[in-house]
Design goal:
Elements (H helix, E strand, L loop, with lengths): L2 H12 L3 H19 L4 H25 L16 H21 L1 H10 L3 H7 L5 H11 L4 H9 L2 H9 L5 H20 L2
């Protein structure tokens, strides 16, 4: 699929669903904020639950890509795999950091190589974190630049979010997330 096809599909997928996606975001934001205000334990809790929420978001946007219905409770679906999501997040952080020690550019390249790991784990819950990471590296061979250009194509949308003091993020965040899920599906099938 071309960039414009990925984006058009994303617009269709989120049409009429911005409200429910915004409610999910508010729940996620509220939980993270509550954790942030709890000294020490809150930081540990945030460290543990953030990857599970990331996995939940991947599940939600992959569900939208399949033209299936979503529910507010889906924001907690990733918690079925909290351990794997946490371990995957740790592995991505460690490997990206180690590659960044060589120079900044190899770290960025590896970040793109690992970028589909959570989508792979969401799509294949039987995989281990290490397997999802390996599959992402394989899948992104020859596609890292494509993802970079796709993300760069949202520049004006990011600027709009800044100009509106974040209000435009109500639409822009789901739009970008749905487009990324479509990108994953398009390279998965290739």
């Amino acid at each position: 699929m071309t960039r414009s096809e990925l984006k058009s599909a994303a617009k269709e997928q989120i049409k009429g669903k911005i409200g429910i996606l915004f409610v999910m975001f508010l729940i996620l934001f509220a939980i993270i904020m509550v954790c942030a205000f709890i000294p020490f334990v809150g930081r540990i809790a945030t460290f543990i639950i953030t990857p599970a929420f990331s996995l939940s978001l991947c599940i939600i946007y992959l569900t939208l890509a399949k033209k299936e219905e979503i529910a507010v409770g889906d924001i907690f679906k990733g918690f079925n795999q909290t351990g794997r999501a946490l371990w995957l997040n740790v592995l991505i952080g460690i490997f990206t950091f180690l590659w960044t020690l060589l120079l900044i550019i190899p770290g960025i390249v590896k970040k793109y190589a690992y970028s589909m790991s959570f989508y792979i784990l969401a799509d294949n819950p039987e995989l281990t974190a290490r397997e999802a990471l390996s599959k992402s590296k394989e899948m992104m061979n020859g596609h890292k630049w494509d993802l970079f250009v796709l993300q760069l194509s949202f520049f004006w949308w990011y600027l709009l979010v800044g100009v509106t003091f974040g209000i435009a993020a109500i639409y822009v965040t789901p739009y970008i997330s749905a487009t990324t899920a479509n990108f994953y599906n398009s390279i998965k099938e290739a």
